[in-house]
């Protein structure tokens, strides 16, 4: 939706579990594509020639490249290439590129549990969360200064009440999951809803918060976790419809899945989740003034976004801390270059005799 090249070609879009504003959603480099092209013998300098070469390759050959040695850490996310995605989506949304389109966006109540729970430690501690947050800052923002990583980690810890050990392990875990859900999914979805609506897109926002009754053998989850990241595929695509007795879903849960699919079908066909197949709860259009969204649960309800503090932290405070860290990195780099130049200049100014001495 944010690509100017899509104008006139699409009517709208759906973002599930976050949006293009999430910190993990985009990369600013096309090195992955170039490396892949090189491995299959399509490393032509001209993009069109490279594309023709790739299209003429056997699909099975391309699929096997990963197994034959393409490094696992390659970044396959969409990239800001200056053409299809010309600039960061936040900048493009500020120019109303989605005006006249229809947009649906949201997240689950505990999307971040897929990251927080496996890494929490046994038992979960504040010290472990500090290590996780500092590692995240290093990977996500590529800081050179450890002090910048520490500043980001410290701000996350304090905002979510992870002050110091000892803390109740369940409390640590609950707060850590909320933090990762907010930062990686929920707040990017909220920001995207606001920017799209302000830019003229007809916008609908949801939260999926039902705790499904499937057995722990399928997907174990903590007692406080309701809807997590993978639950969307169960309800949005009807994964368990054929074998409800195996997965222990109730009649209400199965009906919620069917209702969600009706909302989506109506939205795709008519640009409005309420128009078409009948639905029991009217999904309100999201506006910046009302901030209403649909809460997909049993029962399904209409609610108002009321976590403004966390939203401002994710969209204003944390980015400001990151900018200061980047500026400190740049200042240190310039200082180091200046010292090298001065040292080189002082050596060049010495006479051969003084250098021998």
Automatic annotation (TrEMBL):
The keyword DNA-binding does not apply. It comes from the Eukaryota. InterPro entries: AB_hydrolase_fold, CarbesteraseB, Neuroligin/BSAL. Gene3D superfamilies: alpha/beta hydrolase. Residues 1-312 form the Carboxylesterase type B domain. Keywords: Hydrolase. One of its GO terms (molecular function) is hydrolase activity. It holds the Pfam family COesterase. Residues 337-347 have a biased composition (Basic residues). Residues 332-357 are annotated as: Disordered. The keyword Flavoprotein does not apply. Belongs to the type-B carboxylesterase/lipase family. PANTHER family: NEUROLIGIN. This is Fatty acyl-CoA hydrolase precursor, medium chain. It comes from Lingula anatina (Brachiopod).
């Amino acid at each position: 939706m944010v690509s100017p090249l899509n104008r006139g070609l699409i009517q709208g879009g759906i973002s599930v579990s976050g949006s293009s504003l999430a910190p993990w959603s985009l990369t600013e480099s096309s090195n992955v594509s170039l490396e892949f092209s090189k491995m299959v013998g399509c490393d032509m300098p001209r993009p069109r020639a490279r594309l023709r070469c790739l299209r003429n390759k056997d699909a099975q050959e391309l699929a096997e490249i990963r197994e034959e040695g393409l490094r696992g850490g390659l970044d396959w996310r969409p990239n800001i290439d200056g053409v299809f995605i010309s600039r960061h989506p936040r900048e493009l949304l500020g120019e109303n590129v989605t005006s006249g389109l229809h947009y649906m966006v949201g997240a689950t109540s505990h999307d971040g549990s897929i990251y927080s729970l496996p890494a929490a430690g046994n038992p979960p501690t504040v010290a472990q969360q500090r290590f996780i947050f500092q590692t995240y800052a290093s990977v996500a923002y590529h800081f050179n200064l450890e002090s910048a990583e520490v500043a980001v980690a410290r701000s996350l810890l304090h905002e979510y009440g992870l002050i110091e050990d000892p803390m109740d392990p369940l409390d640590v875990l609950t707060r850590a999951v909320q933090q990762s859900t907010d930062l990686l999914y929920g707040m990017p979805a909220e920001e995207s809803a606001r920017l799209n609506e302000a830019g003229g897109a007809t916008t609908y926002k949801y939260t999926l918060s039902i705790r499904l009754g499937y057995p722990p053998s399928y997907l174990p989850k903590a007692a406080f976790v309701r809807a997590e990241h993978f639950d969307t595929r169960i309800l949005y695509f009807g994964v368990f419809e054929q074998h409800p007795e195996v997965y222990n879903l109730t009649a209400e849960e199965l009906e919620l899945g069917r209702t969600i699919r009706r909302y989506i079908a109506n939205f795709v066909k008519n640009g409005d989740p309420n128009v078409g197949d009948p639905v029991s709860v009217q999904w309100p259009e999201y506006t910046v003034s009302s901030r209403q969204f649909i809460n997909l649960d049993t029962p399904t309800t209409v609610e108002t976004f009321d976590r403004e503090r966390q939203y401002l932290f994710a969209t204003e405070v944390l980015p400001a801390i990151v900018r200061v860290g980047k500026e400190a990195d740049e200042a240190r780099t310039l200082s180091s270059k200046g010292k090298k130049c001065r040292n080189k200049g002082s050596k060049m100014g010495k006479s051969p005799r003084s250098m021998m001495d």
